[in-house]
Amino acid sequence: MPKTPINNTKDFSERSDKLPYLDLLSDHLFWDVNKKTLDIQKSKKTIVHRVLDYGLLKDWKILVHLYGIEEIAKVAMKIPDLEKKSANLIAFLSNTSIKNFACYSSKQSTPPHWNF
């Protein structure tokens, strides 16, 4: 993380220097794409999905700085294959009903081997 703290996430989301933050995200999240080619806005769904389901705590902190909780919730609601634990976390933090999430109302056609 940078040495200067980001106090207001709204101000941060409008800044143009947030591209270096994508480089700080864990490499295992984007093993199949070049992080430098990702666009903060166009790739928002991909970034949010991968950080929520597979990211580390440091990735979560970066995600919150990039988009804010409300924007993360809006994006997460549209992801049909989001993990239930990720959806529950975002629903709790954004004070949103879990029933608003696409992953809550849609089931995978092939269930996972281990259903915990």
Describe this structure in words.
- The protein is mainly α and about 120 residues long.
- It has one domain (about 10-105).
- It is about 50% helix and about 0% strand.
- Helix 5 (about 70-75) crosses helix 6 (about 85-95).
- The radius of gyration is 15 Å and the shape is globular.
Any idea how many domains?
A: 1
Largest beta-sheet characterization: none
Distance between the termini: 34 Å
- The SS-based structural class is mainly alpha
Task: Label the overall shape.
Answer: globular
Low-confidence stretches: 1-16
Determine the strand fraction and express it as a percent band.
Answer: under 5%
Topology at a glance:
Layout lengths: L8 H5 L5 H6 L19 H11 L2 H11 L1 H8 L7 H11 L7 H4 L11
Question: What is the gist of this entry?
Answer:
This protein is an all-alpha fold. It is built from 7 helices and no strands. Pfam families: DUF6922.
Attribute tags:
disordered N terminus; DUF6922 domain-containing protein; DUF6922; globular; 7 helices; single chain; 116 residues
